[in-house]
Amino acid sequence: QITLKESGPTLLKPTQTLTLTCTFSGFSLSPSGVGVGWIRQPPGKALEWLAVMYWDRDVRFSPSLKNRLTITRDPSYNQVVLTMTNVDPVDTATYYCTHSVGGTSLSWGQGTLVIVSS
Amino acid sequence: QSVLTQPPSVSAAPGQKVTISCSGSNSNIGNNYVSWYQQLPGTAPKLLISDNNRRASGIPDRFSGSKSGTSATLDITGLQTGDEADYYCGTWDISLSAGVFGGGTKLTVL
Fold first, then answer.
1. pLDDT, averaged across chain B
2. Burial class (CB in 10 A: 0-12, 13-18, 19+), B94
């Protein structure tokens, strides 16, 4: 059974750095094409794709956010960490991590709500 | 503004059929597989369809997907009140080198 769980702060102030951890189980980042992705959803709005890290450490970012995002992995703990710098209230959203194969998000975490407010 | 275009809402009566469209371009739908996701109120999205028309595990055959050129379609037959949800299409965009989603379609079962 594949599970993913996001963890991180609920409340941040503008200009701070957001660090989210995805802890996953039931799959490995070894097979070709397998990755862990990040997707967010502002309250009442649509899904927005953010980033993905593949098995070979290849990473891709949303062009609109690539200057603010980094993604790392800790395979010994089955974790992938997304960092977003200089947050703004428009970054308020539920952030999901996903088990990704190719361009498909096969499984999703429950999501974690992040609020950016002064 | 989402890269893929979906109608904001659709509705139909229980037992009827509904079609949700997803329009893109050659850099995304035209050259990649399309996935469909269902998001029930207050929950995380769930994969319904991958690879244009492959149902995910446990998804009933009332749900079907197809693709033609730069557009994709999700059909839901035998509508049930439990199908009321937001539906999103998604794929990879080779020009952006990033994933992309549609703006979502809210399904109401009248």
1. 97
2. middle
